[in-house]
Amino acid sequence: MLPYIERIIQLAAALAAGSLIGVTRERIQKPAGLRTHSLICIGAAFITQLSIHAFSGPDGGDPGRVAAQIVSGIGFLGAGTILKKGFSVKGLTTAATLWVTAAVGMGFGSSEYFLAGSLTAFVLLIVLFLKRIDFLQAKSREKQLIIEARNDLEILSNISQQLKDKKIAVQSIEIETDLDEATIYVDFPVSQLKNVQSILADFLKLPGIHSVDIV
Fold it and tell me: For the chain, where are the alpha helices, taking DSSP H only?
């Protein structure tokens, strides 16, 4: 009975780690969020458990063969999140996060609690804080429009339409939601600054928008 309790603890730890990683992606409206990362992490942990305990034995079974397929399998899943539009590629970070989340699950599934927990901490550090460093590096080339608004699909659609009508060359849009409120981050080239400034008043006229700022 004790071995099964330990395996359940491994799955629970993988679920917790996957949820922590996934919630950081969920809050910025990425394609793969809380449930996806949680399922990948706990699934990878379980497959690793099977590899170790069910596919090895005195008859010469190789416990690494099944677990090895996780890496390539997650690679195909991650590829589905990558989109190419013009000269820009989106979704690489999401694909990489899915891949490393599977690695976290494999770590817990093989009882490497300390290493898997450390990897989880490093992943959270990367997805939460290194983006800010990226922003500082690109600050001289890009500006960001920050819009505080009610969390409503119609409002988000109106904002997108305004940007399209004014032919603003948007580089990326990210949305953070908190219950009924939403914060929209619109990155655009410095060369478009005057055009964006000219439509700030129009944004404030839209119902449901609380504040607009450029940083």
Answer: 2-26, 34-53, 64-79, 92-109, 113-125, 131-138, 153-165, 193-198, 200-205
Give the pair of three-digit tokens for residue 12.
């629970």
From CA 85, how far away is CA 91, in angstroms rounded?
Answer: 11
The one-digit pLDDT tens for each residue of the chain (215 residues) are 557 888 999 999 999 999 999 888 877 767 678 888 899 999 999 988 888 887 666 665 666 777 777 877 777 776 666 665 444 456 778 888 888 999 999 999 988 999 999 999 999 888 887 766 655 555 556 788 889 998 888 888 888 888 888 788 788 888 888 878 888 888 888 888 888 888 888 888 888 888 888 87
> Does the CA dihedral 116-124-90-184 come out positive or negative?
positive
Predicted TM-score (pTM) of this structure: 0.58
- Residues 16 and 105 reside in one and the same domain: yes
Among residues 136, 153, 169, the one where a domain terminates is: 136
How many domains does the chain divide into? Answer: 2
Give SS3 for 149.
strand
Say whether 100 sits in a helix, a strand or coil: helix
Contact 72, 49 (CB under 8 A): no
